[in-house]
Amino acid sequence: MKGILITIFFALAMGSLQAQTDINAPYWLNRNIPSFRVVAAADSSFFEESQLAKNKIIIFMLFNPECEHCQRQFSMLVKIPKLQKEAQVILASTETWEKISAFYYKYKLQKYPFIRLCKDYKYTFGAHFQPKTVPVIAIYNKQQQFHFIKQGEIKREELEAALKPL
Question: Domains in the chain, please, with CATH?
Answer without folding.
Answer: 23-163 (3.40.30.10)
